[in-house]
Amino acid sequence: MPSPSPARRYTLLESDPHAQRVTFAEAVAEGLGSEPKSLPCRFLYDEVGSKLFEQICRLPEYYLTRAERRILETRADEIAACFDEPALLAELGSGSSDKTRLLIEAFLKRQPRLRYVPVDIARSILDESAQALLADYRELEIHAIAGEYEQGLASLRRETRGPKLIAWLGSNIGNFDRAGAARFLARIRDAMTRRDRLLVGIDLRKSRRALERAYDDASGVTARFNLNLLARINRELAGEFELDRFEHTAVWHEPDGRVELSLVSRAAQTVAIRALDRVVRFRAGERIHTEDSFKYSFAEIAEVAAAADLAVTRRWLDPTRAFSLNLLSPAP
Ligand code: AVI
Asked: Could you report the per-residue pLDDT of 138-147, keeping only the tens digit for each?
């Protein structure tokens, strides 16, 4: 039987984009009005930020994406073989779904059709990648969810026809602190049945030099990505930040296992944000904390998994042992 056209194999569920805008204004008012100042890292990913992040993933210093791809290139068949009946593939934070193609192909070697449920905040990237995937794989059906992870999980909870593999790649778990990671894994666990598996990409602890270079690259792309938060305030909230008066920094805090990203004011200054009707004062050297990227030991992975009632049942590493892919199952 011929496959239905790409349009008939695609559905999209979208959250209210206006609600997000209000939240950004609130987060900026709250984060820049606090001591110490901070901005939530999820706002790094507007359209400009998402494009810059794609560039980061191709940087020589940013080993994470290549290492994870290398694992999938060699292990995707093994991962798909963890299911003995046709499975559904879901992905949290799917972005361009580039690496996911390796999983899609591995599943399609074992089952005649595949339902893929990508969840991402950026609708345009979801649309673009879905069109490309549907053109390349006629046996694929895509139900995309444009919104927050929570919305994706609510929808995934209802997908109980067969087992599912929920992929959470790219070490996105690293942008939660340890307690937040355990809490979020528990929310994913709530959307899983006993037959389901969670595939989590997790970056491992390594030398300060390798980590600080990965988050402060020689060509300055990560600096532009971080500074885009201030540019976004200028664009969306009529802010008056002069970007060259702030410096991007990335510092490895070994005891906590995190790389801390900040924007540091190069001088004492005041900045107006007109849509918020306020002026923000900065001391020379004052930081805005923008992101943490947590790195893990195997013991730390086991700990956060156990706190969410999950157990690591398989693990794959890249040849340089920089990055890990972990298969988590509901704890017995
Ligand atoms: C999305 N996330 C896993 C990236 C990371 O490595 O923590 C975000 C990032 N920030 C700067 N470079 C990459």
From this structure: 999 999 999 8
